[in-house]
Write a structure and sequence with these properties.
Chain lengths: ~325, ~325
């Protein structure tokens, strides 16, 4: 039975061609300005892939974890999933007259962005869980995909899925070309993210670590379904990011990428391993091309993690200085 | 920066050589008797890897999920993790005088195997959670590894890690050689299993789906740790297997392998997808070489899932007839 041989051939072709296909194989990070940030990334990748060097990391240990909101796509003026959730709450309000007087639904229904951004994490969680429950996982996936296909960002008038960071796409591809396995580790919902992460970032559904609700297996007449319950299972933020990494991946990352205080523990957890490490924070300091916010922002606050980055010499990337372009559509 | 090229070369070498290295590349399943079970497995794999056939499945969708206890290793007379748990309870009993009078600890301390096997799932869960908590994830890993290195099976007088099924090892390798990604989906604890699954089965820690306890991130003086809490997070059994698959993998398997009623929903969930599928149950019918048990067994009961297999023409493998050898050490 020569089946093993039959699949070996296409696999080889794929592996040989993959590094050749990018237009600029000689410059893996063309959207990164030639400065210390870019140099440090390349130095790290070169060190851990150099078989004869002291910092060599075997391929199976090359785990890189990326936050999503504010690290791979724009999170201002409000986390995309919260915008989706707000519209779900508005759509379902007719069936829930009590929401008019009950927080956090009242604020979401009234829709004043300044007040929505000031909802606590716990309130946002409650709204997410309730508005994302009562349907099957397949129905939820369809809802998210439909919404993302049409919803537009209030300032850029583009679909949210267009507002991904070109330099980070290049970084993802560069790491993968160097044998890294790339994961998302986000406070966002696993199922929400899976509706776009493979298409946008090339990260398959099994490499998405995130928050999740409980589900229930039901055998219906037309077959089994998984029903989403209005009950939180796991919050993948702050310390939860290290917990999610351990539970899902079971290996400590050697590189971790974030942008806010919610990523601090993921970077600490990464830094605590032995050998060469790369801890990177994206600093949103470009009000003209994107947004400028840090220590006092309600969304994506970067305060304690920034101090920690300074103290421990983690790489802080300036969107303004280190990124030649922000979005793919900016490219000439 | 030619780093992408540097890694491309070893990858190619690996892919070309991998299918050649097994001694019997022409017979991927040498420990399977030449009969209908073996033929059906090969027919399925041939069909889904044939690019020109109607049943072709692209590599990224070739997800195969394996139960562990009773499917990949021996689960009689008692699940290995419960034996470990029982010994932990005995070791900790001095600090918990109340356990002498309190179930399930009382039964575990007295140690009558017949009564231990009759503990309910909920009681076993309680013992597992309590006896596996209060230490860091790293400390737990060390405890399990130490225990597995010395503990012996009461009948075979071998380490538990030797009591893995040679035919299933060949099946795992055969599927991987044909582009499948192999996962464990087990009622057992993720962290317990990870201490041996990569070494025994070649399945990396990120492809282990299982039950888990809650953990807590703590920043200690010497660095961050994850502390295991005496609180259950998720039970990956029965319907939980489909839930675990969806949450962790996010893709429906095209092949699923189990041996007991706890696997029924995983096989149902797998079967409910479109296109060619393989659902397989190992039937323990070999009292001489291993054990014979099914409808009335307290451990690994195969009753409802067997009826379902008959009704839906899932493949039921007879250990006695379909497997030439059981364990690797049986091989001549």
């Amino acid at each position: 039975m020569p089946a093993p041989f039959r699949t070996a051939l296409p696999a080889v072709v794929l592996v040989i061609l993959a590094p050749l296909t990018p237009a600029r194989a000689d410059d893996p990070l063309p959207s990164w300005a030639d400065g210390p940030a870019r140099q440090r990334i390349i130095k790290f990748v070169t060190a851990v892939t150099d078989r004869s060097g002291k910092d060599y990391v075997p391929p199976e240990r090359r785990v890189a974890t990326f936050d999503n909101d504010g690290t791979l796509w724009t999170e201002k003026p409000m986390y995309v999933e919260v915008v989706f959730s707000q519209e779900r709450v508005q759509a379902l309000a007719g069936k829930h007259p009590e929401w008019k007087e009950k927080e956090p639904f009242k604020t979401l229904l009234e829709g004043d962005p300044a007040r929505v951004t000031r909802l606590t994490d716990k309130e946002i969680q409650e709204a997410l869980v309730v508005s994302h429950a009562g349907m099957t996982t397949a129905e939820f996936d369809a809802l998210v995909k439909d919404w993302l296909a049409t919803a537009k960002h209030p300032r850029f008038k583009r679909r949210y899925t267009e507002l991904i960071y070109q330099p980070m796409l290049e970084l993802l591809a560069y790491l993968r070309a160097n044998g890294f396995k790339t994961y998302i580790v986000s406070g966002g919902g696993v199922d929400f993210m899976r509706s776009f992460t493979e298409r946008l970032y090339g990260i398959p559904p099994g490499q998405i670590v995130g928050s999740s609700v409980k589900t229930k297996y039901e055998l219906r007449e037309r077959g089994p379904v998984l029903v989403r319950l209005p009950d939180f299972l796991f919050s993948d933020n702050f310390g939860g990011k290290a917990e999610g990494i351990e539970r899902h991946i079971g290996r400590r990352p050697v590189a971790a990428f974030g942008n806010s205080d919610g990523d601090q523990q993921m970077l600490e957890w990464t830094a605590a391993g032995e050998g060469a490490r790369l801890m990177l924070l994206v600093h949103h300091d470009d009000a003209e091309r994107e947004y400028a916010y840090d220590r006092t922002s309600d969304v994506g606050r970067l305060d304690k993690a920034w101090d920690e980055a300074t103290r421990r010499d983690w790489l802080v990337v300036s969107m303004k200085k280190d990124w030649k372009v922000i979005y793919p559509f900016d490219k000439k």
